[in-house]
Amino acid sequence: MGKKIVKIPKNLSEEETLEKIKLVVDRIAPKYSFSGYDINDIKQEAYIICFDALNRYDECRPLENFLSVNLSNRLKNFIRDNYCKSSNEDKRKIVCPLPLPSNDISSDDSMPVEDKIFISEIKEKIEQHLPAHLRMTYLKYMSNVSVAKHKKEELLNFIKSVVLKENINNEEG
To answer: Does position 115 have pLDDT exceeding 90, yes or no?
Structure first.
């Protein structure tokens, strides 16, 4: 593995560059300590980030501003990558939400079997096509929890459209 050469800005000496890096690291790194990382761990990462950033430094800009922005962004990424880990299973749950709980209508003896079948088919269709932004409203509505009027109207309009499509499909078939 070869040595990586750090580009020192032309308008600054090596000592001045190190002093500016130390100043930025001492000011910014303490804001980003978390979990099992103490301040010294974060400062070490911060120095590495700053030395790496020097190779991308545009000498027309102030060095401290460049390092501050770069260091803050990279430390945020470091925290996100090392503290907010989520499994592929968690990501899959966001894309493909868990099935909705069902209200069991099979125990209602007063309802004819044909109606029970029709209602469960309609519920299945609704739940299959239910947009993610309406899931919580649907769950609340089905559990008799109060729902904001505009959300309830949006949900009911969606349900009507599903029922209408199902009725049209039944009449055609």
So the answer is: no
